[in-house]
Amino acid sequence: MKSVHIYLLGFLLMMPGVLQAQLFERPIILEGVKMISPRGEVLEDLMITIRRGRIAGISQSGDAPMMSKKIAADGLFVTSGLVDHASVLTLPVGGEGAADHWSWDAFDRYDKEAILSVLATGVTRVHLVPVRSGGISGRSCWVSLEPAGENASSSGQFGVLMEEEAALCIDLASGSPVARMRSYGAILDQFSAAKDRRDALESYDEDLEEYLEELKKWIEEKAEEGDKESSDEGAEKDEKKDEKKDGEEEEENKSPEKPVRPGVDEPSDILLKVVAHQLPVLITARKSADLINACELIQKFELDAIIHGADEAALVMDHLKDLENVSFILDNPANALSASGPGVIDGQPRRSADLISVMEENDLDWVIGSGGSGAGLWRMTRKMAGSEAALSSAQTTNLRGEKTRRDWVSPGMRHLVLWSGNPASDAAARPEKILINGLVVWQRPAGTREGRF
Amino acid sequence: MQISIRSMSIANNLKMATSQQKTRSLSLLGMWGVLCLSLLGATPRGILAADTVITGAAVVTADGSVNSGWAVIVGPNGQIKALVPNEEVSEAFQGSIFNAPEGSVLTPGLHDLMGALGTRGQAASLQAGTELFDPDLDASQAFDPTDPWLDVAAQQGVLYTTLAALPLGVVNGKSATFLCQTSKTPLRLGEGKQTMALGDSVLSGNRMPTSRTALISLWRDWVASDPEELKSAGLLYVYEGIDLRQALSLPWSVVPVFIHTGGDARSPLDLVSGLPGPVHMVVGPLLEGGDASHLSMAVQAASKGIELSFAGGLPAGPADHLRTSAAIAVAAGMNPEAARRALFSNPATVAAATGTGIIEAGARADLVLFSGDPLDPASKVIHLWRGGEGQRVAGSSKVGELDTFRR
Q1: Cβ neighbours of residue A243 under 8 Å, at least 6 residues apart?
Q2: Measured between alpha carbons, how far apart are the two ends of chain A, in Å?
Q3: Is B258 within the bounds of a domain?
Q4: Ranges A103-107, A230-234, B322-326: which has the least confidence
Q5: pLDDT tens-digit map of B83-109
Q6: Secondary structure class of A342 (helix, strand, coil)
Q7: pLDDT score of A15
Q8: Residue B126 pLDDT class (50, 70, 90 cuts)
Q9: C-alpha to C-alpha distance for A120 and A65, rounded to whole angstroms
Q10: Residues 6+ away with beta carbon under 8 Å from A258
Q11: Is the ipTM of this complex over 0.90?
């Protein structure tokens, strides 16, 4: 036993990082905070202990551990970080897209002002969705908006990749009706071409074997013909007579054609991953015709799909209900009052006032995404889901049957928001501090500093 | 049938809507006592059978606070007759009683300032600038009462629209405020205010002034001539911070309302807040993902005691953009009461639309019933009244859950 201790001590001395983490990493304490219990009650005067960036304990009474570091949080309301399921934070919008484009490549992790403005609204995780001018836009990813880089607290970088490839994004909603039809046709062609390529790849080995056999036969035949020619020199006189026949036989004497291996085609490979259910598609479709196109695409290629927008879902619910394994990301674009209504023939989508109720009545999974930077997510969620369901909606992931509840604070959580009031009931409540991995990544400036020139 | 109203019981029954407001209850108590005594008179008055009583909702008052426990009596002339404690409204009353649902909030109408609502979307239909000083121009010439967007906007709680000519001259004529109601005849509210401009929009290559220096010189000469237009508070367009700073260097006898809709005037705010009397400024509209410096300026201006109003932008803007402006401002640090004043009472002052923007005796009964605090994006318009004429807005399937109306 003694030897085990010696080895352990030796190990710790050789690994100073582990020793430091174990012995010297100070727990972080949030004292006097309030939170909502799983039963919906407001619990007051709680102490939350954070170790190694995660909540290690929540207690209503107790002494703070020795050497702990306290973060002023008295009277503040704690929730988990909000989740934006469709964000374009720092991404360029518009232009040509392609399947091999990736939103993480375009994410500007040094745009501190934009990222902090989103953190200031309580959003700590974003699903970065590339938005192009119709068609295949690229692949999305999930990002945690925490400081990044080797020295995270001072690097000036934000954003840690949480999920590298979340979905292949397809936009069926942009442009004029004709442009949308064309881009839908192009998408069908691209998927069909990818499937043909897959078939070609699958049959390549078989074709190669056939080719080798044919080649072997051909060589043998040629060898036999060579023997005959050398023994029948007297037959030269007949050559002229046989000239015409030689021309016909040239085809037969030609060596077999070697099959061509399909070349490297990354966009096509990504589409094949989608067809093979290794990557879902996120299809933006708002009007009924676009939603029907989305349904057709999903069914034709048997895709795992998330539909973004779905403003006119109520009009085509029969089509949507036929889909299997599909979820929805809803939003509420700030359309002009004059874009639809009296006298407007082809305006904005005819959105149902109670879209969420329609989704729930038909047992369809839905979440809310801002569709913008994420700064307006909380207001959009309150507007769409109502004050009672807003908080759980803004914190919960509920896509394609995978439901992750974060609507109450529990041990293990890394993303915390400290609000000035109860966000579930107080419309004027606003984030005061944001903690990720035990680090205060944003806090509201004191006094009038916020408006200082 | 009359119900006696005892003024003393009004003060006794005053309740604050939120815990925050409780801290100010004493001052409000006094204010309400004085208000009610002045409104109702020392002698008992009553509710007539022809009146409509709206009860059960909290009421947004002129100071921007939300006060529960009050009923609003609307007279047959389309004006608010009085505010009385809910307890004073007897079940025996045979007139119209509108029982608002729990948690609902009754407000004055929202006000779309400096937009194009009522012009069928033709924002440029009234252009100034042909004459540099054109005080006789009247923005009402651009108003079309048959514009269908007026009724659409009203469904969102926007009951007033104020039009002004594009600020292309130094003096651009009077603004005009109308009730948002699609009809054959317009209902103008107030005479409007003289609109002026100090900024790049006045400059032109075809006429004087062609430079900012010339513009400032023109302004100085005009102010020195003590014109009639400057003897009452007008509306002054100062789009950029430098415009506001230069405007403040002029010797104003009456401080105008500063229309600063989009720029960053944080640096001269101290000068503005130092002006005598309540200074009004029109800001915004504040948009999701919009200019952070303008938002910051608005928050700071409110904290310095400048009375703000949110500019409109209908019908080009989203239907609920006024409330969105307020919600964004509150999230950025603006006091909720200041934000509510910026939605309701201040725009009426800015537009000189007398008898609007406030729930008090004698004011027009242009009211909106929201399902909750109008600052909360989750709140929806349930019912509205224009000149006391009620209209249900909430979907019919929800009406049973939302309210009851007894005749």
Answers
A1: none
A2: 66
A3: yes
A4: A230-234
A5: 999 888 876 677 788 999 999 999 999
A6: coil
A7: 55
A8: confident
A9: 30
A10: A211
A11: no
Please give the backbone phi and psi of residue A416, each rounded to the nearest 5 degrees, phi first: -130, 145
Q: A24 CB near a chain B CB, below 8 Å? A: no
Taking the CB of residue B129, how many other CB atoms lie within 10 A of it?
Answer: 20
> Same domain for B118 and B76?
no
Inter-residue contact B378 to B367 (CB < 8 Å):
no
On whether residue B386 sits in a domain, the answer given is no
Amino acid at B283: V
CATH number at residue B84: 2.30.40
What separation, in Å, do the N-terminal and C-terminal C-alpha atoms of chain B show?
Answer: 14
Collapsed DSSP state (helix, strand, coil) of residue A228: helix
Compare B121 and B256 and report the one with higher pLDDT.
B256
Nearest to A387 among B297, B333, B378 (CB): B378
Report the chain A residue with the minimal C-alpha distance to residue B376: A427
Same domain assignment for residues B132 and B71 = no
Tell me which chain B residues have a C-beta less than 8 angstroms from the C-beta of A378. 331
Contacts (Cβ under 8 Å, ≥6 apart) of A206: none
Separation in Å, CA B308 to CA A62, B259, B263, B340, B346: 47, 10, 15, 10, 7
Q: Which of A337, A354, A427 sits opposite B376 (nearest CB)?
A: A427
Domain count, chain B: 2
Closest CB to B149: pick one of A335, A338, A354.
Answer: A338
Which two three-digit tokens encode residue A335? 């359309």
B401 inside domain: no
Collapse the DSSP code of B110 into the 3-class scheme (helix H, G, I; strand E, B; otherwise coil) and give the result: strand
What token pair was written down for A264? Answer: 């490297």
pLDDT confidence band for A221 (50 / 70 / 90): confident
Q: pLDDT band at A290, cuts 50/70/90?
A: very high
Say if residue A199's pLDDT is above 70: yes
For residue B99, give how far its alpha carbon lies from the nearest alpha carbon of chain A (Å).
22
Provide the domain limits for residue B183.
110-356
The residue among B316, B303, B129, B270 whose CA lies nearest residue A445 is B303
Residue B20 confidence (pLDDT): 39
Same domain, B225 and B86: no
CA distance A335 to A318: 27
The two most distant CA atoms of chain B are separated, in Å, by 72
Which residue, among B304, B305, B311, B302, has the nearest Cα to B282 in the 3D structure? B311
Six token digits for residue A437: 């991995």
pTM: 0.83
| B101–A contact, CB cutoff 8 A | no
Q: Distance (Å, rounded) from C-alpha B287 to C-alpha A149?
A: 33
CB A408 within 8 A of CB A39: no
Question: Poorest-confidence range of A228-237, A271-280, A337-346, B344-353?
Answer: A228-237
CB A330 within 8 A of CB A352: no
Domain boundary among B60, B82, B108: B108
- Tokens encoding A330: 């809803």
